[in-house]
Amino acid sequence: MSKTILIVDDSASLRQVVAIALKGAGYEVIEAGDGQQGLDALKGQKVHLIVSDVNMPNMDGLSMVTEIKKDPNYKFTPVIMLTTESQEETKKKGKEIGVKAWMVKPFKPEQMLDAVSKLVG
């Protein structure tokens, strides 16, 4: 059975690049345009991994992850932040709330797939 990955980014073109790479590797993909949509997309779905941007309108990625981790169903769901944000302080906060990997844009799809496969197998 294929694994499902939620991509949350306010850039449709970036979501498309990530989705194409993931689908090409055999994953199912759900997309959301901001943190609030990301939370809504999770409702009752089995998601094996989340790839999220940090800076988004309505709800940023770190706030979304904080909310997600409160839900027992997603407490252990791995999260990869894919962002232009590379400040140590932001990364540290991400780690504290449960982010498993941090990738800075622009990124190579192979790098991302490598991180994804390590986290979801």
TrEMBL record:
Pfam families linked: Response_reg
PROSITE patterns: RESPONSE_REGULATORY
Phosphoprotein is among the record's keywords: yes
Chain positions found as 4-aspartylphosphate: D53
InterPro entries: Bact_response_regulator, CheY-like_superfamily, Sig_transdc_resp-reg_receiver
UniProt xrefs under SMART domains: REC
Keywords per UniProt: Phosphoprotein
Protein name, per record: Two-component system, chemotaxis family, response regulator CheY
GO BP: any one term: phosphorelay signal transduction system
